[in-house]
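quick q for whoever's on today - can somebody do inverse folding on this one?? i tried earlier but teh output was garbage lol. tokens:
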């Protein structure tokens, strides 16, 4: 008796990181604070300098080497806020509000700048080739980036819950899953004044404050009337908050697509040691390839077997972290190239 072949959600899964966007003109995470500094409002710099110098006494705004990693800084601000009342008898001249305001201003400056980078990034020559390849493969893309390049080049503006992997069923076309959120996702009623022709609901909830809408076209986070929209993104900190309901479905679907592919291709993703959430879903995916996706409390689907893994990244340490998470039963090939070189030369 012939048994049906194990079911695969997608044959090919891409895992996209900051190195992918770096090739399009965006900064790497470890360069983000240094590069965004000139885009900060002038009156916000002095309070932020005080915060950074408190945590990093050697910080000098004129010395790029003294800038901390933004993930570390934002985590330090969170710790500062959590322990603020426990570390002093009174608030003093430097307040919790100033800490929150500086953090918000910094994140707003990054989102504004990323929108400005879009116009040039989308014209990058090698981008068309990789998008064509992803479409032909009907691939799933797990992107840890906020930018909107693939949203509009890969999905051609057909943004909906299914395309974003937020529907109950994942459909048959290419999927773009963004477990750290996106610059065009807005929670609650922020987009209520926006015309229905310019937005789409990508996640529904009976509670209107938990519904999520997206702009159909790339749009600045600052409106012409001066309103600042706050996108649904997960800031780069060690303490990531995935409280919005949307993320529960999104991370589950990320795990599902990673659990049964023939091939997983890592493009410019470094798998930072601090991102334990990403480590966890990747481990779940590789574990399920060998043992089968969970079907219900008592059974699993038939295992599809270990995927072939390609790691495209000049950074050997990043490649080794991915190999360690994949485990010894998964065959990993490290390609020591920048993404644009691999795209242009790979057959």
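ok took a stab at it. sequence:
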């Amino acid at each position: 008796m012939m048994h049906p072949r194990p079911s695969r959600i997608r044959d090919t899964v891409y895992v996209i990181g900051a190195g992918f966007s770096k090739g399009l003109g965006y900064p790497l995470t470890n360069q983000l604070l240094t590069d965004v500094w000139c885009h900060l409002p002038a009156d916000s710099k002095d309070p932020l300098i005080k915060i950074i110098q408190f945590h990093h006494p050697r910080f000098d705004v004129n010395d790029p080497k003294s800038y901390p990693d933004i993930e570390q800084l934002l985590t330090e601000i969170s710790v500062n806020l959590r322990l603020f009342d426990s570390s002093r008898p009174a608030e003093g001249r430097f307040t919790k509000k100033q800490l929150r305001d500086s953090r918000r201003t910094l994140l707003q400056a990054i989102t504004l700048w990323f929108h400005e980078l879009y116009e040039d990034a989308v014209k990058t020559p090698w981008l068309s080739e990789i998008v064509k390849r992803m479409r032909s493969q009907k691939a799933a893309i797990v992107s840890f980036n906020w930018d909107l390049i693939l949203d509009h080049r890969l999905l051609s503006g057909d943004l909906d819950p299914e395309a974003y992997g937020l529907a109950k069923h994942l459909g048959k076309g290419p999927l773009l899953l963004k477990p750290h959120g996106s610059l065009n996702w807005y929670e609650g009623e922020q987009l209520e004044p926006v015309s229905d022709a310019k937005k789409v609901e990508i996640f529904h909830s009976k509670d209107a404050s938990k519904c999520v809408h997206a702009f159909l076209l790339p749009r600045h986070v600052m409106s012409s009337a001066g309103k600042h929209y706050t996108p649904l993104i997960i800031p780069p900190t060690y303490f990531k908050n995935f409280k919005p309901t949307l993320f529960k479905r999104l991370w589950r679907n990320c795990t599902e697509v990673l659990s049964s592919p023939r091939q997983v291709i890592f493009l410019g993703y470094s798998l930072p040691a601090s991102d334990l959430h990403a480590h966890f879903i990747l481990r779940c995916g590789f574990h399920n390839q060998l043992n089968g996706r969970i079907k219900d409390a008592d059974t699993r689907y038939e295992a599809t077997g270990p995927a072939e893994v390609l790691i495209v990244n000049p950074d050997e340490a990043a490649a080794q972290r991915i190999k360690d998470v994949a485990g010894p039963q998964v065959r990993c090939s490290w390609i020591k190239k920048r993404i644009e070189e691999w795209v242009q030369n790979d057959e």
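fwiw Strands lie at 12-16, 140-143, 175-177, 185-187, 199-203, 212-215, 263-267, 308-312, 332-335. also The longest strand covers residues 12-16. so keep that in mind when u check it
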